Amino acid sequence: MLATIPSSTLDGLDGVRVSVEVHVANGLPAFTIVGLPDASCREARDRVRAAIESSGLEWPLRRVTVNLAPGGLRKVGAGLDLAVALGILGATGQIPIEQLVGVAAVGELGLDGSVRPVRGVLPLVDVFDEPRVVVAAADARVAMLGLGERARPVRRLRDAVDALADGLPWPQIDLAFDPDPVEEGPDLADVRGQEGAREALLVAAAGGHHLLLVGPPGAGKTMLARRLPGLLPELDLEAARRVTRIHSAAGLPLPASGLVRRPPFRAPHHSASMAALVGGGSGQSRPGEVSVASDGVLFLDELGEFAPSVLDALRQPLEEGVVRIARSGGTREHPARVLLVAAMNPCPCGEGGSLNCRCNPASRSRYASRVSGPLLDRLDIMVHVDRPSPLALLDDRPGEDTASVAARVASVRVLAQERGVSCNAELNRRQLDLVAPLEPAAVEILHAAISAGVLSGRGAMRVRAVARTIADLAGGPPQIRAGDIAGAIGMRARPPMGGSDDCRG
Ligand SMILES: [Zn+2]
Description:
Structural class: alpha/beta
Mean pLDDT: 89
Bound molecules: zinc ion
Radius of gyration: 28 Å
Strand content: 15-25%
Number of strands: 16
């Protein structure tokens, strides 16, 4: 007897449909699984056999062949277990074969017959058009984002057999949940002083402009960066689904509601490999940090310590908002729409700019050059962060809090949406000409900066976008004024300290 159950496997961020064909024939008892299974997939036999026996069902003492089609695709993980078990039960008549028509399944089996959640369930169930899709109860909430009423969540293999073979009702899974707690992220009100840095965070969040924080250790660069996601608007439904899919595929814990609603914050260590940061690599490819942070904030602390090749690999994703990953059978695109925040010390000893700096000009210059020019060119805002003065720390007046700054950010984001983009940083040259016309004095300032070699042509476009955001925050007229352009040029990132001697006093 032959039974075929649709299931799916994960390839990067995407689910790929797999047809699980189970053939049971007379002959010496044997179990063969073919069709490029990986190690954990090959172990399905032991899990499936134990689960079937633990469920009070019969393991066939015959020749069982499982074929996973298409054959050329590598099948990863244990998510095919459930389909293999249902196929065996169908091929041995323990579930009438006609009851399996229109049924797909994805779930891992425990030896006790339990059905366990799988990594990436949202992209995995996206491939099914079957009217009934059996998933683990623990995956129900996330699976239902993709399947709606077609989901058939079960806690045990037995639940599925009872429903399919004996016509018992599918189990009622309690989908009520405590609403996700309103995340009390760190608040900007805790930051004392730091007026310049606060302003930079506001402009970066409002316009989606990449930001570089430069300052000595202990100045609060990380503290500032962690407060950036709280300033960003809640994800709309489309973005929330996109982020949830990626986090599901990356195996990250999802919130109780199943849907990620807040912009993510990721802070990979400076020892991160290229594959960890942008994705790809050999074997089972997981999304890189730049994709996991998509629609949120990617924080690169100690920017100068990242391998230059790794930083170089970030340029294209930052430019295009997607990562292209070469895989067998073509290229995949993963989302990579991040707000990048980078932080670095001004020099190797960290004290650059003060009399305490112990570095010689050559080592300072070498340090600055580690951050490549092209990446620096993509950081539209740079701000120097100094250790707060003792007086500022004594000041017990709280700064403006996250909620009020977020409201100002939201109003600028609404303006951007009216311009057809999600934030001003996405405005291209044609759109800028349309929505950010320059008054004559502003043109002069821009031309002077280009002539002096302070700005590249590309840099000038970025400056105009930042100026648009500054003007939006000020509620100014549609025209960009000289002050807005000057402000944006003043914020633009340049190599920190360069080779200059000025921090030696
Ligand atoms: Zn130094």
